[in-house]
Design a protein that fits this description.
elongated, mainly alpha, single chain, 76% helix
Length: 242
Amino acid sequence: MYTKRIVGIAAVAIAMLVALTSVAPVMAQDISPVVGEIDKNMDELIAATEVIHEQTDAILGVEGIPDGVAAKAETVHLSSHALAHIGVYMENNIAKLDTYKADPEKNKAKILVTVGKIEALRKLHQDTIDAGDFVTTMELPVTGKAPHELVHVLIEDPDVVASPEAKSAADDIHTALHAFDDASKAMRLNLEDIEYTLAAAATPAAATPAAATPTPKGPGFEAIFAIAGILAVAYLVLRRTR
C-alpha cells in the first residue's frame, strides 16, 4: 500500500517534469495575405506611374502650350521614367517575397532582408516624386521643386486651365499622384506588418494571459529540486505511518 503511494507520487512528479520541460515549437504565422496586399500596392503604383507618364506627355503634345508649362510637364514626365525604373527593382524583390512566403519559418532571414530592400526602394520611389532632390540632381528643366509640387502648379496654371485637353490631363495626373501616395503608404504599413508578424512568432506567448510577467526560465535544477522535494516528503510520510 505504501509502495503504491510512493509510486503514485513519483508518477505525479514525473508528469510535472514533463510539463515543465515540454515547450511547444513556435511556428511563424502565414504571411501570404500581407504579401498579396503588397503585390496589390505595387500594381497600384505601376498604374499611377503610367498615368503620370502618359498624361504629362499629353500636356506636352498640346499645340501652343507655353514653354513654362511645357518645362514643368517635362520635368514631371522625366521623373516618371525614374519611377518606372525603381519600380522594376521593387517588383523583383516582391517576387522573392512571393517565393519565400510558402515557408516563412525557414525563410525568415531572407524575408526580413528582402522587406528591408523593398522599403528602401519604396522610400526612394516616394522621394522621387515628393522631394526636389531628384530633379535638382538630374538637372531637369525645372529644379528646386518636387514633381508633386509642380503638378499642383500645373493644375492652377491659367494656360492649362484655358486648354480643356491640358486641364483634363493635369487633373488625371493629380488624381494619379494621390493614388500613388496612398499605395506607397499602404505598402509601408504592410511591410511593417510582415516584420511584426515574424518578430511575434519568434517570441513564445505566455500560457495564460498575465500583465508584466517575468520572462520564464528553463526548469533546469529548479525542477529537479522540486521533484526531489516531493519524493522526500513522500518518503517521510511513509516512515511515519509505518
